[in-house]
Amino acid sequence: MQPFLDVRTAVLNDTLEDAFRQRYPGFRPTDGQQHAVAKAA
């Protein structure tokens, strides 16, 4: 049950997306990252 609570806490604290982004860099790039990707293309 602890992993569920960890995820729920991260959702409520708005830190879940950042945690995914640290683990998976291509996960939903932020606005600043989207501009960098567009310039690189």
Describe the structure.
The protein is mainly α. The chain is built from 3 helices and no strands. The protein has one domain.
Care to give the gist of this entry?
By secondary structure, the protein is mostly helical.
Structure characteristics:
41 residues, elongated, mainly alpha
Overall shape: it is elongated
Mean pLDDT: 80
Query: If helices are DSSP runs of H or I spanning 4 or more residues, what is the number of helices?
Result: 3
Uncertain runs? none
Please describe the biggest sheet, giving its number of strands, its sense, and whether it closes into a barrel. none
Q: Which structural class do the helices and strands define?
A: mainly alpha
Outline the fold blueprint.
Layout: H1 2-12, H2 16-23, H3 31-40
